[in-house]
Amino acid sequence: MLSTSLLASLLVSSTLAAAPNPLEKRAFSVKSNSQTGRFRDGPNALRKAYLKHGIEVPSALEKRQAASGIASGPQPTATSSIVAVTEQNDLEYLSPVDIGGTIMELDFDTGSSDLWVFSDKLPPVQRKDHVWYAQQNSSTSELQDGYSWKISYGDGSGASGIVFADKVTVGEVTATRQAVEAATSVSTEFVQEASDGLLGLGFGHTNTIKPTRQPTFFENIKPTLREPLFTVTLKKNATGVYDFGYIDASKYIEPIQYIPINTSRGYWEYTATGYQIGNSPMRPLSFQSIADTGTTLMLLPPAATADYYSQVAGAKNNVTEGGYVFPCDSTLPDLTVQMLGNVNAVVPGHFINRSKSQTPGSPFCYGGIQQGSPTLSIWGDVFLKSQFAVFDGRDPPRIGFARQSVDWITHASPQHVSTSTGQSGSAAASRPVPNSADGRPISLMKYVRNTVRRWGLTPRVEGNGHIASKRSVKYKHLKFQGSNF
């Protein structure tokens, strides 16, 4: 039997390697941490989510972004246990990942399926604030001739590059020949973010590698895990943790309720059947939902979003702030979302108070719930910070939710638990920095912009040079309506 201190190893796919040797089943945890000094704001996060998931970017939001001086669209590269540590105001949770001997801070993203990183193939100006991957720094790196990848968003931004097979270690487990997507081109949006890349935890049949799609890191390590699952415990303004291969009973206080998922689009996708605001009756409403650790906000159908803020004194959909805002002294009701099988999850009202407006003297705060598609809801970190979430990779896969234990605190260093059948450990996420380096509040618009871009909207340019969005655009299999500001 292997020592529990040894790292598990496995294949990326039959395309890249031969079958692995039998290994002891394992479990481990990883904390998420962040780089300091890199910031994003609320409207930017909303814009990123819109672009990622194909929701139309409101013209007012694009205009505000242009006025704020934040670049949009493609940028020429020639001219320019794991801890989840929170980036500014819980904007994102970053975790350390060892790729061929280089430690990089990646965003663990259940809403995508690519593992891509900054590389030495980018101009120095684009990678100067990032850790980057270089083949010459790894003794195990192999270029995959003829393989490429490309991630594109609706505004023309994105990233693309070449593919290597290399060792990728997260916590206690190593994928010996993981497909590593090294960027040779990135747009300004990614350069401005804190992460050094993404580690997708969606389903590999939708990743962007050509000519042959490759499995995700989780899909590759799953045969070596004690249980074929991972759990997510994100914290508000504090360190969170991803656990792989086991369920830590100390992190939740209610029975875990499971629901089936639909993997056809590569997401951890499930059906919501209704919602409840405070103590009001449950409102029946059926819509598809995605649990997405890579999105900051919670995007609900427009009708449900408007309904929620109608119960908040002084709340309004504000063009200046780029979304729903409310007086900071308003009391926010809890939101209960109901899923298939009468599974309920509660988001406490104080979790929905996203952040304070940066407008000098403004009494408003930015809402963690914003409107998205009428048919597709994105449950990002605002939702997940209130939950203990289980991403179960058994056949058929399922997702589970339980109320998170408020008494659970992430340890500052990895905690390892060994058993006769395997091992486990933990890793954490750093606290966000509430203000910029000069002490000013962070601009909310950046939250919106990043959220919109993430979910894939296509903007158009008006005659005055401002970027606007089409009022109704069909993207692949879904049709999304823009917001009226």
From TrEMBL:
Similarity comment: family membership: Belongs to the peptidase A1 family.
Biased composition, class Low complexity, residue ranges: 418-430
Spans through the membrane: none
Highest taxon of the lineage: Eukaryota
MF (Gene Ontology): aspartic-type endopeptidase activity
Matching InterPro entries: Aspartic_peptidase_A1, Aspergillopepsin-like_cat_dom, PEPTIDASE_A1, Peptidase_aspartic_dom_sf
Positions of region (Disordered): 414-440
Active site residues of this protein: 109, 292
Organism in which the protein naturally occurs: Tothia fuscella
Intrachain disulfide bonds: 328-365
CDD domains: Aspergillopepsin_like
PROSITE patterns: PEPTIDASE_A1
GO BP of this protein: proteolysis
Stretches assigned to the Peptidase A1 domain: 93-402
Protein name, as recorded: Acid protease
Keywords: Aspartyl protease, Disulfide bond, Hydrolase, Protease, Signal
Signal peptide: 1-17
